[in-house]
Design a protein that fits this description.
alpha/beta; Rossmann fold; seven-stranded mixed beta sheet; two-stranded antiparallel sheet
């Protein structure tokens, strides 16, 4: 078992009857979502901030994992949390947003979901490029991390991207497209106007496919990892209000 990176540790906080499952992104760690999780715990909620399989140690640990592993872990943590509280909200950044949508399509009993710059649109060209790299024997490529506008703000994440897991994410997004219509719970879509990882137009893709009219928050001063960026307090305030209204 590899050592967990400093700052990448998962968290579990017992609180009140409202539970919140908080999910980080691809090659990321709980570090990116800790400000959100801490604020929710300070508000008295029960919070689970898991570390997804293969993440937060060394990138080699991630090579053998896939979307199925991350989704299974999220499902397990959700069921454990739901057994301890009255209602559950789920919040996810980037691929954590993909997993949030995946979970909501399967659990209409969720009180509500929040996605932050969610990865949702499959990219056929990217998938073909990854397959070509893998076929050539490659396992890793440089990662895009730290897409943050705020100067001097680091992100605890891998500096390389494992290709097979990335391909599994792309395939999962194709499957997710066909299940988005099953998302019927209250939904808040948070999107950065400038995002160098996930196109801002993704919010329209999600909104046009889920079965509810979502709420929106557009961020004008943050990039992809908005939870660590200039709009962090705005995100925390908006999520807190969303939970209060739907709890």
């Amino acid at each position: 078992m590899s050592t967990i990176l400093s700052g990448a540790e998962p968290a579990s906080v017992d609180g009140g009857p409202i539970g919140v499952l908080v999910l980080h992104g691809f090659t990321g760690t709980p570090h990116s979502m800790r400000p959100i999780a801490d604020a929710l715990a300070d508000s008295g909620h029960t919070v689970e901030l898991p570390l997804l399989p293969g993440h937060g140690t060394i990138v080699e640990d991630m090579i053998a994992t896939s979307f199925d592993d991350w989704a299974a872990h999220v499902e397990s943590v959700y069921r454990d949390l739901a057994a301890r509280v009255d209602r559950v909200f789920t919040i996810g950044l980037s691929m954590g947003g993909s997993l949030t949508l995946w979970l909501a399509a399967r659990h209409p009993e969720l009180a509500g979901i929040v996605t932050i710059n969610a990865a949702a649109v499959p990219d056929e060209d990217l998938a073909e490029g990854i397959e070509a790299f893998v076929a050539s024997g490659a396992e890793l490529m440089d990662a895009i991390r730290g897409d943050i506008s705020k100067p001097g703000t680091p992100e605890v994440a891998y500096d390389q991207t494992p290709l097979r897991p990335l391909l599994s994410l792309q395939k999962a997004l194709v499957e997710l497209e066909h299940t988005l219509a099953a998302v019927t719970v209250p939904t808040l879509l948070i999107t950065s106007e400038q995002d160098h990882v996930v196109p801002a137009e993704t919010r329209h893709y999600i909104a046009s496919r889920i079965a509810v009219d979502p709420e929106h928050l557009t961020l004008l001063d943050s990039y992809h990892v908005a939870t660590l960026d200039h709009d962090q307090e705005k995100i925390i305030e908006t999520i807190g209000d969303f939970i209060r209204r739907h709890a």
